[in-house]
Design brief:
- This protein has 72 residues and is α+β, with helices and mostly antiparallel strands.
- It is 32% helix and 8% strand.
- The longest helix is centred in the last third of the chain and has 16 residues.
- It is globular, with a radius of gyration of 15 Å.
- The N and C termini lie far apart (51 Å).
Length: 72
């Protein structure tokens, strides 16, 4: 694998943790099973019950990030 590029393949969160991006995961091509924050594979290889917990958390967070829609 090529050298990782900060801001494209990974970043450091506010706590100093190394976080891989969805772009990096897509290039790798599969779920590693660790429950990564930006897993684009819906945590396919993460064992239960952690898989369901992560999927639920991801769904709740995506609703928080969704733009507000107003119908008049």
């Amino acid at each position: 694998m090529n050298e990782l590029i900060e801001g494209e393949d990974f970043y450091y969160n506010g706590e100093g943790n190394f976080v891989l991006t969805a772009k990096y995961h897509l290039q790798r091509g599969h779920c590693c099973g660790y429950g990564c924050r930006h897993c684009p594979f819906n945590y396919k290889n993460v064992p239960e019950p952690k898989q369901s917990e992560l999927q639920k958390t991801k769904l709740m967070n995506s609703k928080d990030d969704a733009p507000e829609i107003r119908i008049f």
